[in-house]
Amino acid sequence: MTRALTEETAAVPRMQQPAAGAAPRRRWRALRQVLAPVLLLLPGAVLLALVLVWPFLTMLGISFTDRYPNGAALTLDKYRDVLGDPYFLRIILRTFGLGLVVTAITALLGYPVAWYLARSRSRWKHLVFLGVIAPLLVSIVVRTMGWTILLGNEGLVNSALMALGLTDTPLPLMQSFWSVVLGMVHILLPFMVLSIATVLGKIDPSLSEAAALLGAHPVRNFLRVTLPLSAQGVAAGSVVVFCLSIGAYITPLWLGRGQVTVLAISIHEQMVVLVDWPTGAAASMVLTIGTFVILALYGLAFARHARR
Amino acid sequence: MTQRALAGERLLGLYVGLILAFLALPILVVIPSAFSAGSTLAFPPQGFSLRWFANILARPELVRAAGISAAVAGVATAVSLVAGLGVTLALGRYRFPGREALRMLFLTPLVFPAIVLAVAVAMVLSPLGLVRSFWGLVLAHVVITLPYIIRTTSATLAEIDRACEEAALTLGANPWRSFRHVTLPLLRPGILAGVTFSFIISFDEFTISLFLVGPGMMTLPLEMYNYAEFSLDPTLAALSTVLIGMTVVAVLLIERFVGLGRHFT
Q1: For A133, which of B15, B174, B260 is closest by C-beta distance?
Q2: Residue B210: CB partners within 8 Å, gap ≥ 6?
Q3: Nearest to A109 by CA among A181, A204, A207
Q4: B168 within some domain
Q5: By the CB < 8 Å criterion, does B179 face chain A?
Q6: How far is B54 from chain A (nearest CA, A)?
Q7: Looking at this predicted complex, what is its ipTM?
Q8: How many CB atoms lie within 10 A of CB B16?
Q9: Cβ of A4 and B171 within 8 Å?
Q10: Which pLDDT tens digit goes with each residue over A25-59?
């Protein structure tokens, strides 16, 4: 019975130990309380250090050298190359522009679906949920090929247009900025829907019911009550969608057919074709900084929100 | 319900149906193309044949890449599960300074641009000679599978009533036995979902492997991309159909035994 009691106190660290406990045993328990999380974290922390922290610091270091290997000086040259070159600048703008456009479209398209998932009492709701999630589990290569079948020269859309006599030659539906946007929206829409639905589901419906009882028009009710309350879901979804879209490689490459160069494609070129690691590292850091800025803005906005 | 609200509900339902069609279309369109008798990736497909399925097996590089991808996904998932469960328990069951920061750090790869992760990992692994190596690929894939495992198991752990564990300890179980006989069985749905997602995510991953593959050590998505570079015959549609079929089976199994919903939000 004593053992059972002491074990219980070991599991609940904040609980005070009965004064009668033997001192060495207490010390052992206190030690275990410290040691257990350390040992549990150890394998994960070693892996994280090995595959994330160390590589990231290495990349940061290489971005400040003039060449690799045997880089001589610590220099900002490569950042100047990347940020000062009009060619690179256009790629950076295109990358972040693509991210913004994709984020805005997924938020607009996704909000009503999230609303449906959070509020509807339809018996189809479960199937809709599956329908939103399932595409996440299908390989991006497969989905990109699906777009090729739809939009390619011999694809569904062109066959339909030609059969209807609307055009004689296949339209070049691929290889444009907007075909890349289409593919990215398709890939990232589920992330947005799920983020918004999570927050919408937590909003107490009685709040908008109260607004309705007090005579608020449904539109006003939505704009003044539900939308602000769900802002965090939209923001969280936007962070995920934006960060994933600025790092995308395969979709812009395949659906853009070399006509839509984004940073990821240009980084790959620097690394593999030109074997210029410092420039590749500096360009990667531009993406990283973009990501950190977005994450920090989100953190600031919603940390303040939570305090109020 | 008023007439207007009902109309609104219908309209919303219609809209949701359209979005679902948009999400499903590029996936479903692959399947009929796989059975085409013609030799181009055209829609509508011409005739019916199974020869493109047979052609998958006639391409040793595709079969080999599928094997490599499955092995990488399996090992990366296993490594992530062991390490990730420890992290989940430490973060979920102990209090220590820096816990939230550590949780964020572990989950960062979920929102980090994949190309940056790929560049960073390659810059460490290539001087070590771990390019075109199985273990190099496994290490790189762990970057993305570990956070998936941590997220799904953490979500499940948060739902487990701590009173169950405390009851076991009160009844005289030591912490290991309490974990083995109480926590672990309750965690099983999260583990199952996490393992499945982790495997699928790794199997489908393209960008992370980008700088680490080479002749003799290609993953399936990259080999498929290479194949598409020189030939757009329906072989890839057939292979994709097989992959879609396997995904559907996995989704249905999770849905049946675990419930998919709770693990994605």
Answers
A1: B260
A2: A249, A268, B115, B118, B122, B222
A3: A181
A4: yes
A5: no
A6: 19
A7: 0.84
A8: 23
A9: yes
A10: 778 877 877 888 888 889 989 998 988 899 999 88
